[in-house]
Structures are given as C-alpha cells and as structure tokens.
Protein: Transcription elongation factor GreA/GreB C-terminal domain-containing protein
Organism: Pelagibacterium lentulum
Amino acid sequence: MASVADQLMNELDRARVVDQGKLPDDAVRMGSIVSFTTEDGFNRTFQLVFPGNADIASGKVSVLTPIGAALIGLREGQSIPWTARDGRRLSLTVNRVQQGQ
C-alpha cells in the first residue's frame, strides 16, 4: 500500500488543480468509468472510486490500487508505463472514459 500511496503522491505533485467543470469529458477522475488495455492484451472496464466504495465484483476499483493511481488524470488515447502486481513493466492505454453518475 505504501508504494501505491507514493505513486499517488507523485501524481498529486504533478497535478494542476482545475475546476471540475473545466476538465475534459475524456479525463479520468473519481467516478469515471474507464476502459483500458495493456500491451499484453489485458482489457478491462471499471469505475474509479474511493477506497470505501471499492468492490471488484461490481467493477469498482479504488484509486489507491496501482491501476487506479496509474489511470487518474489520463485521457482517452493516452498511454502510461505501468508495473503490474507481478513486477512486469507494461504500457497501459486508455480506450474510453465515461463520466459516472
């Protein structure tokens, strides 16, 4: 959990705070429903949520997971290097972002 917190802190250091209404619709934020793929063919869709609302069985993933911290702030079509839980370094690409209700 400490490494995920460090990753999220790095993202916050790079972040620029803007009004919610000024974010592009295709930017990943809390509540977004995100479809992504990795270069090894892993394809998934989930909603990014706060830890207390996480429920992997219903497709809700915490921002404090490695994948959640990696995706926050990305936009459709953007890629980011990502380290899988097994240590493999992969490229992760956002295919679609839908804002949740």
